[in-house]
Every structure is written in C-alpha cells, then in structure tokens.
C-alpha cells in the first residue's frame, strides 16, 4: 500500500504511466493497429512480387506476339477461333460431370 501511495504522489510517474497506457491502447496508432499494418504490409509485398512477375510474363508474351507472325497466328487461332478461308473449325466440348 505504501508503494502505491508513493507512486501516486510522484506526478511524473503517473503522467508517464498514463501516457504509456494511452499510446498503447487508445491512440489511433496503438499497438494492435500497428501489428495489423505489419501483417498487411507483408501481404502487399507478396502481391507486389506476384504482379511484377505477371507483368514480366505478359511483356515477354507481348514482345513475342509483336515480332513473330507465326506465334501471332497461333494466338489468334487458339483464342479467337480465327481461320483461313479454306479451313473449317470443329470445336469439341467435353461435358463436365
């Protein structure tokens, strides 16, 4: 009991303790929100790495499509079902069961 009263008599210790509690729990930048932000930052870094890798793949594919007419023709045939005048296209669709 004597330690508590001596602690409460010192206004600097009380103010410092109140400030510490306020910053830890009640402030807008409290510890809980800081931990959430750290985990969110890790997720965002993973997303950034994924999208940079996807951009690199797409840039390579775009370069190949722009500079190689055979790959451009293959891409058009596969994705847009384009054909030559003397050809017929048959689509085989499998049932999903």
Please, could you describe this protein's structure?
Helices cover 75% and strands 0% of the residues. It has one domain (2-80). The protein has helices at 2-9, 11-26, 31-67, 69-80. Helix 3 crosses helix 4 (69-80). With 97 residues, it is mainly α.
Order of helices and strands: HHHH
User: Main β-sheet: number of strands, strand sense, barrel status?
Assistant: none
In round numbers, the mean pLDDT is 87
Number of helices: 4
Defining traits:
97 residues, single chain, mainly alpha, 4 helices, rod-shaped
Topology, please?
Blueprint: H1 2-9, H2 11-26, H3 31-67, H4 69-80
Helix pairs in contact: 3-4
Q: What is the gist of this entry?
A:
This protein is mainly alpha-helical and 97 residues long. It is 75% helix and 0% strand.
């Amino acid at each position: 009991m004597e330690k508590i009263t001596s602690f409460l008599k010192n206004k600097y210790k009380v103010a410092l303790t109140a400030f510490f509690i306020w910053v830890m729990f009640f402030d807008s930048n409290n510890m809980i929100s800081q931990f959430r932000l750290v985990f969110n930052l890790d997720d965002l870094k993973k997303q950034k790495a994924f999208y940079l890798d996807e951009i690199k793949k797409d840039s390579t594919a775009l370069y190949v499509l722009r500079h190689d007419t055979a790959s451009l023709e293959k891409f058009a045939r596969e994705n847009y079902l384009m054909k030559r005048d003397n050809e017929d296209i048959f689509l085989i669709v499998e049932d999903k069961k």
